[in-house]
Amino acid sequence: MSSKKPSIFDLYQMKVRGEKIAWLTSYDFPTAQFAQAAGMEMLLVGDSLGMCVYGYNGTVPVTMDQCIVHTEAVRRGAPNCFVVGDMPLGSYQVSDEDAVFNAIRFLKEADVDAIKLEGGVRIASRIRAITDAGVSVIGHIGLTPQSSGQLGGHKAQGRTAETAKMVVEDAIAVQEAGAKMILVEAVPPEVTKYIWETLEIPVLSIGAGPHCDGQLLIVSDLIGQFQAFTPKFVKKYCNVAQLITDAMTAYVKEVKEVSFPDEDKYCYHMVEGEETKFLELMNK
Ligand code: KIV
């Protein structure tokens, strides 16, 4: 278990040493505890909670209030992880003022170490405004789920020379606007490598290959809990959905056949001699 929360400076030192950063999403207290015990440096309370926790079709309906509540729980579960709050759709698109207001909410109400927002060139002024207000920003480029409608769905980005150039321009804009790190999603490894070699800030990947400073995965994918779809870049490390369903099926069966609860094993018996007294009392 990490005994001290890494600072931005510690994460930069990891980049310098060539030590990879392990980053995972988390939406609740117990998962955050497990992630910290596993040695995770960073946690993202992603707006993917809309799909993974609330069962929405996408991230669009997720609100700031929902993000804050889940981020508070994760913070409590993982005091020694670098926790990142994810700005949901509507919390930063309208104006720099909105963006700063909501980023500060994350800091004051959920004690985050940084916030993440989606977009490159088009969102640079928001990154600058939030950074100037004293909140660390992590940029997110490539496949940006909040604008997946405009991108033609959840599709890999930068697969042609022209679109790869646009992804690189986004990456440069994010760094120049003052972001402390950048997350690249669903971009070919050749393009991520170029970005990694071009930028100075740490480059993290989700589905963007190994040439970078660390990886992010969605916890519900990693543990085999999310059922709706599995992107190509996801590696499932266990099948929690099967484990939970098996346990619940066994419980249903035992309830029906009254083999649970075993009276000696799972019950609180009356104090010795009290049952006779109790029955006498009831018969008065
Ligand atoms: O919300 C989230 O979990 C994210 C990841 C898809 C990067 O933004």
Structural account:
- Helix 6 links the parallel strand 4 and strand 5.
- The chain has an eight-stranded parallel barrel with strand order 1-2-3-4-5-6-7-8, surrounded by six helices.
- The protein has eleven helices and eight strands.
- The model has no long low-confidence stretch (mean pLDDT 96).
- With 284 residues, the chain is α/β, with parallel strands linked by helices.
- It has two domains: 8-238, Phosphoenolpyruvate-binding domains (TIM Barrel); 243-282, no CATH class.
- Helix 4 (64-77) runs parallel beside helix 5.
- Bound molecules: 3-methyl-2-oxobutanoic acid.
Helix content: 40-55%
CATH architecture descriptor text of the largest domain: Alpha-Beta Barrel
Give the helix/strand class: alpha/beta
Stated plainly, the CATH topology of the largest domain is called TIM Barrel
**Poorly predicted parts:** none
Please specify the SSE layout and strand pairing.
Layout: H1 8-17, E1 21-25, H2 29-37, E2 42-45, H3 49-52, H4 64-77, E3 82-86, H5 96-110, E4 114-118, H6 124-132, E5 137-142, H7 161-176, E6 181-185, H8 189-198, E7 203-206, E8 214-217, H9 219-222, H10 240-256, H11 274-283
Parallel strand pairs: 1-2, 1-8, 2-3, 3-4, 4-5, 5-6, 6-7, 7-8
Helix pairs in contact: 2-4, 4-5, 5-6, 7-8
